[in-house]
Amino acid sequence: MRTINTDRPLTTxxxxxxxxxxxxxxxxxxxxxxxxxxxxxxxxxxxxxxALLRLVDVAELHSGQSHHCRRILLAIYNGDAWPLELNRLRxxxxxxxxxxxxxxEWATYSDRELHEYLPDGNGxxxxxxxxxKELGE
Length: 137
Prior knowledge:
This protein is mainly α.
């Protein structure tokens, strides 16, 4: 019989007793899954924070790429009011595309809102909100 991450056969319960009629009982190590998720979140934060800071730095400028960075950041901040338009990624240089995708992935798995990682992040995003409202797109 096969085993998966355990010395118990797949047809036994947690105490090692046979389970009649079950040939494919799978044991899930939730502690290992939790640890894997924590490690993934830590790696994302390590890559994500510099990427977020890069997007914010560009978003504060006055260029077409700045406009697209602001809209991506606003989509992460409030996707209902600022839906993510994927074409915006095509308008960014390759390094900014990578930064944006990293930040989007980080936002997906983070246990906090990303603007909370910025000094006065809420104020920064509100400032971007006002700038984009003025553009009227």
